[in-house]
TrEMBL record:
Subcellular location: Cytoplasm
Protein name (Swiss-Prot/TrEMBL): FAD assembly factor SdhE
Top-level taxonomic group: Bacteria
GO biological process: succinate metabolic process
One family name in Pfam for this protein: Sdh5
One GO location term (cellular component): cytoplasm
Species annotation: Quisquiliibacterium transsilvanicum
Upper taxonomic lineage: Bacteria, Pseudomonadati, Pseudomonadota, Betaproteobacteria, Burkholderiales
Length: 94
C-alpha cells in the first residue's frame, strides 16, 4: 500500500490519485458503481487518513465490502480503523 510519507500527501500526488481510482475498480458491478460515485463526489477532499481507510476497505473481498456498504453487517469493534469507518459512512451515503 502506498501510505504517504511525511510531507507527501495523497492530494499532492496526481499519480497516487490515479492509482487509487484504478484500485477502486471492482469485479462486482455494484461495488464499482458505489466506489466511482463516492470518488467522483469526494476524491479531491479526501484526507490522507481517509485514503488509508479506503485502501483498508479495498483490501476486503467484493462480497465483504458490499455487505458493509449495504449494512448487511456492521464491522466488529476494532475491525476497521477510524479512517475506514469514516469512508464506509461516506460509501453508504453515496
Amino acid at each position: 500500500m502506498d501510505d504517504p510519507t511525511p510531507g507527501d500527501s495523497h492530494q499532492a500526488d496526481p499519480a497516487r490519485r490515479r492509482r487509487l481510482r484504478w484500485r477502486s475498480r471492482r469485479g462486482l458491478l455494484e461495488n464499482d458503481l458505489v466506489l466511482t460515485r463516492f470518488l467522483d463526489a469526494h476524491e479531491e477532499s479526501l484526507a490522507d487518513e481517509d485514503v488509508s481507510g479506503l485502501h483498508e476497505l479495498l483490501d476486503l473481498s467484493d462480497n465483504e465490502l458490499m455487505d458493509l456498504i449495504l449494512a448487511r453487517r456492521e464491522p466488529e469493534p476494532g475491525e476497521l480503523s477510524p479512517g475506514a469507518l469514516h469512508v464506509l459512512q461516506g460509501l453508504r451515503e453515496a
